[in-house]
């Protein structure tokens, strides 16, 4: 089957179930008759199936709230991958708000959109994230601030970790649980990826979304491993830079072990 035909079929299938699910999600948001986390998780799982992406989870996700999930970032696929495993909400770049389909679902999933390049807006953005954490919403932060090539970890930025401290100002919790998570792109077509192939699947910088989607479809099945690290309690008097370094060290160790096929 040609890549063009495979792409068209995938888009048609996703379109077939997306509109009805969006309507159900809108109903959930407006009426609270059902949890607004159910439909996004279902959509993510269905779409991963259409794309031929298989996800394996390792480790134990924390059930403690408030919770900030801190992960590395390789591709737009990371959102579908983490969203398929649990009812989470994302801290996303502001540009994503205008994306077709993904942007709409990001809004309906109650993502917080941030402008990382505008440092003056960081305190306001941190307060919005803090409110969501204090309300019990598990928030996903891609702490590198951008996407990498999947072969190495970029330094974590500590700015938005301040949201964890702000969430404790309401006195509704004694600490925020920071859960490190490593996303490893492991194989395609049943064969382990090398560095070049892994980088080709990543979505870096200003790369257009559609060509990357075609690359993913051509590589199917793609196997991705999500490994959960040890939860880190962030106390009201904790230091965000210390917590950032600890989370970064865990994610780097898990990513390295996943790429090498070893245990940690």
TrEMBL record:
Phospholipid/glycerol acyltransferase domain mapped to chain residues: 67-186
Claim: Membrane is one of the keywords in the record: yes
Keywords: Acyltransferase, Lipid biosynthesis, Lipid metabolism, Membrane, Transferase, Transmembrane, Transmembrane helix
GO biological process: phosphatidic acid biosynthetic process
Pathway(s) where this gene product acts: Lipid metabolism
Transmembrane segments: 6-24
InterPro entries from the UniProt entry: Plipid/glycerol_acylTrfase
Single annotated GO MF: 1-acylglycerol-3-phosphate O-acyltransferase activity
Protein name: Lyso-ornithine lipid acyltransferase
Species: Nitratireductor aquibiodomus
